[in-house]
Specification:
By secondary structure, this protein is α+β, with helices and mostly antiparallel strands. The protein is built from 13 helices and 20 strands. It folds into three domains: about 250 residues, FAD/NAD(P)-binding domain (3-Layer(bba) Sandwich), CATH 3.50.50; about 90 residues, Alpha-Beta Plaits; about 90 residues, no CATH class. Helices cover about 35% and strands about 20% of the residues. The chain binds flavin-adenine dinucleotide (FAD).
Length: about 475
């Protein structure tokens, strides 16, 4: 079987690799002039106009790392050799390890390095042809009038034909007349302002009770990511509706805000690290699932084209790998293209729908909280989406069972029902959070922060 893969981002690369390893042929068509080879840091010079979030923080959840280790161990090895940083959360357990704890590992690595490693693996696969600088312009339909895709048209050269078209074109625009299942876009409600740093010599990553430092000020939030080669990212998450806080796109305001928030004050100090990017804003972030019928036979969607969610959950890379695996499994089990599509949708659809629903519910709760709604995160009957995420993470360092279940839930290792149906666990979380009491705020109230940012801004303007 020959797969025509439209889009050579993470999902397109992973899908072509997985189907080739299942014994098929693939051709990958990527609009940007990407090429394999060279050292990993060359990936930062590649112009990726097709991926606006190319330099934004990325990391593999435990599920993604496990998928790599299961069916692309060579890619995992390449990433580790290139400086990817595994973080084993089982080290946070107080008691002995149990079977399954070996999966509680995040893999911190910047997005350009991830693509570089996948491209290298694809280039080494004889059954995959990778064509960079080729824009897909439309779908090719069968001559007999049947509603079936038989390949794609491209901007230069003749049409590319195959048995199955794989839509790996991502979350943004697709060519006119393209066929995708319908999907409603729900705004995540947040804009992200991120900056990457490299740790100063002799400095180690700041430890946090569970993952990396993160928090919420009640009107905005923050998160931090590790990266490969002693890099790290600091991300300010701001309500999309809060126009005054948009001044955080300015480097000086961003720095001033971080200096008011614990522990970002330390993490953005010159003793701790040196900035390696400017402040990178990212808005327009939606939750969309398109797992339904694409209304045309012969086409199947993977990665963001199938389902994408607020990057705060970091599902995308793991989903891209899971979709690739599902496509390879379906192609091994099913006799023809139609059966592969059906089987693929049965394998990948339920989890995508479940996580999309969870992302929408959690984003809605976060927006309510940021708008001043008095939600109690410590009680499951007040705001379950935040209780099961923020509340569970706060309780996790105090109880191994909570730690395991919570990381398995947010790390995509378990279906959501495993946590949701464990009422005894919920009780334990409530008890622990009751004992811990209300945490002290990590930063100033909104009006104080804005006053500080405005006075800094006025002082800077006066000195120019
Ligand atoms: C700010 C941000 C942060 C994120 N952080 C994380 C994270 O920490 N962890 C995580 O797991 N996920 C994260 N994600 C999600 C992750 O980036 C996506 O899920 C992932 O990129 C999906 O890959 P994809 O290949 O489906 O789409 P894309 O990466 O968008 O790739 C689509 C590809 O198609 C190409 N293309 C588009 N149109 C054409 C055309 N007409 N012809 C040929 N080629 C075309 C593009 O150039 C691109 O290469 C984040 C997303 C964002 C926005």
């Amino acid at each position: 079987m020959r797969f025509v893969v439209a889009g050579g981002g993470v999902a397109g690369l992973a899908a072509s690799l997985a189907v080739a390893r299942a014994g098929h042929e693939a051709v990958v068509l990527e609009r940007d002039r990407v090429h394999p080879g060279g050292p990993h840091d060359g990936a930062f010079d590649v112009e990726r106009r097709g991926i606006p979030h190319y330099f934004q923080p990325h990391a593999f959840l435990p599920r993604g790392r496990r998928l790599l280790s299961d069916w692309a161990p060579d890619v995992l090895d390449t990433l580790l050799e290139a400086g990817a940083d595994p973080q084993d959360l089982a080290l946070k357990l107080r008691g002995p390890r149990q079977p399954g704890d070996e999966d509680l590992v995040y893999l911190w690595v910047r997005r350009p390095v991830i693509e570089w490693a996948l491209r290298r693996a694809v280039a080494a696969e004889p059954a995959v042809e990778m064509l960079g600088g080729v824009r897909v312009t439309g779908l090719l339909s069968s001559d007999d009038g049947a509603a079936r895709a038989t390949g794609v048209t491209v901007d230069e050269g003749g049409p590319i034909r195959g048995d199955l078209v794989v839509d790996a074109l991502g979350r943004y625009r697709c060519p006119g007349g393209w066929s995708r299942a319908t999907g409603e876009a729900t705004d995540s409600g947040a804009v992200y302002y991120c900056r990457y740093f490299r740790l100063a010599d002799g400095v180690q990553h700041l430890d946090a009770p569970v993952l990396n430092p993160r928090g919420d000020l009640g009107y905005m939030g923050f998160n931090t990511f590790r990266g490969d080669n002693r890099t790290f990212a600091v991300i300010l998450l701001v309500p999309a509706a809060d126009h005054q806080l948009r001044m955080l796109r300015h480097e000086q305001a961003w720095r001033a805000a971080c200096s008011q928030i614990t522990p970002l004050d330390v993490m953005t100090s010159t003793d701790y690290g040196r900035p390696i990017t400017g402040v990178m804003p990212m808005g327009g972030l939606m939750n969309v699932e398109r797992t339904g019928d694409p209304r045309l036979a012969g086409i199947v969607a993977v990665g963001d084209a199938f389902c994408h969610t607020d990057p705060a959950f970091a599902y995308g890379l793991s989903f891209a790998l899971a979709h690739a695996q599902a496509l390879a499994d379906a192609s091994a089990e099913a006799p023809d293209a139609d059966a592969i599509v059906e089987r693929y949708r049965a394998l990948a659809g339920p989890e995508a729908r479940e996580r999309h629903a969870l992302a929408c519910a959690t984003d809605a709760a976060r927006s309510l909280r940021w708008s001043g709604e008095p939600l109690q995160i410590g009680r499951r009957d007040s705001c379950y989406p935040l209780f099961s995420f923020v509340g569970a993470l706060a309780a996790a360092p105090h109880d191994d069972a909570i730690l395991r279940r919570t990381i398995r839930r947010i790390g995509l290792l378990d279906r959501t029902a495993v946590f949701d149906d464990d009422h005894a666990l919920h009780e334990r979380i409530e008890t622990i959070l009751g004992q811990l009491g209300k945490p002290s705020p990590a930063g100033p109230p909104r009006e104080d922060l804005l006053a500080r940012l405005s006075s800094d801004h006025a002082a800077a303007s006066a000195s120019v």
